[in-house]
Amino acid sequence: MKRISRAMAVGVAAVAVAAGLAVIPVTWATAAAPTVNCSGDARIEKSFDNGTEWQMCWRIDSKHGLMLEQVAVKAPGEDSFRRVLDSVSLGQLNVPYDTGKNVWNDITSYGFGNQYLQKLSAAECSTGTLRDYGQAWSITRRGETTNYLRTIPALCITDTTRDLAYRSHEQTWGSIEDAPLFTTTGQAFNLSIISKVDWYEYATKVEFTDDGAISFNLGATGDISYEDFDADATTGWPVGTDAANYAASHWHNAFWRLDFGLDGQALQQVEQYDSTLGEAGEKAPLMHTTATTIEHPANLVPAADTTWWRVVAPESRNADNHARSYEFVFPGSQLYQGNPITQPLISVTNYAACEEYASNNLNPACPNLSVLDYVANSADAALTDPVAWVNSGFHHVVRDEDQSPMQTHWQSFSIMPRDWTAQSMSTPEGRSCIDGDPGGEIHSDESPCEVVVPTDPEPTETAEPTEPPATTTPTDPPVTTEPTDSPEPTDPAEPGEGGDPDAPSLTISSTELSPGEGFELEGAGFAAGEQVEVVLHSDPITVGTLAADEDGAIAGTLEVPATAPSGAHTIVVTGVDSGLSAEVEVTVAATPAAAPAAASGDDGGMLAFTGTALPIGAASAAVVLLAAGGLLLARRRRRAGVASA
Questions:
Q1: Which residues in 94-119 are b (16+ Cβ under 10 Å) and which e?
Q2: Does position 124 have pLDDT exceeding 70, yes or no?
């Protein structure tokens, strides 16, 4: 069902008589509210399930269109809101045509408010809430002035979701066992208005997320003007039958004016980060990222695709003692090179009340100026109260599908919190203990979660699958003695497709054995010349020792001890010097078998197994394989000391 909440105008104190004069909402507060200076339908508040909250004030300006002020966020667990932006609005929409015949400045020449602001229908805000807005303006034609007063549903507030906000599945490497899964969809809401200028209809949309990010979007739809069918093959695109009519390509250079007010701090700085390739590293060249503080107002052009910027409040610190900031994120902005104003991606200036528009400034205190003038006129001033003029550009090459109506094309960018909080605003309780280097395994199934010294985890119980057949639970790890001069355990590398190519391999003539029966073992990947112990588990029984050759290969015939009990066992081979290990599951029959069971395959009747390429003290991971009726198990281990049986 459509939900419509409208604040009916209770009166307008005075009707504006000067053309273009903005009228604020009729519910705007006359006295300061505790947190934001607005109330009623001029105030927007939103709480998300994860505890993040937003609040702000909104109004419609005759030229800028949608204006948001006193934008603040409260992170989960915090007691109060922190200011992000003092204000934000569109500062210009510059539209030059590739034919060179027209250049429009839609914000200053027309505007997104007054008669250009569109009445929203229930259909276009079908899942959201509409809010009314009261306007008053005047128009003078041929010496005659007409005053207008109206209230229309103008703002749509819509709740949205973000698929896959995060996902983390706590599986042991190579395992298919279920484990704690952390995943969720994110929440957001957006505010949007529609403004119609000539043939184009523009959607101004600002979205706020539950992780503190804000995205700024301008969508263009409507129709192609008949006046724009004046291009050729180099300045437009054929639209319609054959190549009779070329519609002119053109640019939408949308300037957003972001007046930052991070945490209410008097000192805010702008930093630029550039990443460059350096010296050769172990496997790839090093890439060094360096920061530069923008000391003075400036026009910023990215040095490379790796250039990025943030606005930081150096004296506002999160729980990790890091300075709070917001960084700019650009999914892609096309910069029009035909005008010096549109060549910078961002221009940064100090706040000045009269600097309202990116070009053709209408404020009489500094008339007809642009961002280039703002920067030049204050080039020697220290940049401490930044306003960012962000150029979100789009080159519209018209296509057949743009008729009619034209499909909406969007141009967007975002600002994202960087170190605003010590952890993400969406961090689940099961990961609340992770802040910095974990230093061990995460036990998120405990409350609260904790990080512990790595040990061999117990296998995770899972529901019995219907297909393929259920596998057998791995047996306890064997007793092995770590050599005194063995290296410190290291983190195992993530196994790639086909397993670790450096892992020891092991083959056995049969997995069905009998007490006193001989069997053949072959393996590779051990240290050259070391002794390799062969032990039957789970009650350890030494079977024998094989010597590795200069290539680290082993081969020999051994005998199942006559005292070996019947049932499932594990044969574990371990290099005495290297600690490298491999193992294979076998079954010992109650009585000696008449002859070894021949294994099928292309490997000479041997069943192959790949073991671990790390010392036996490396972190545990299991891969279970079924072959010829025998269960082969590959495991990565990570232990801090001597393993217990």
A1: bbbbbbeeeebbbbbebbbbbebbbe
A2: yes
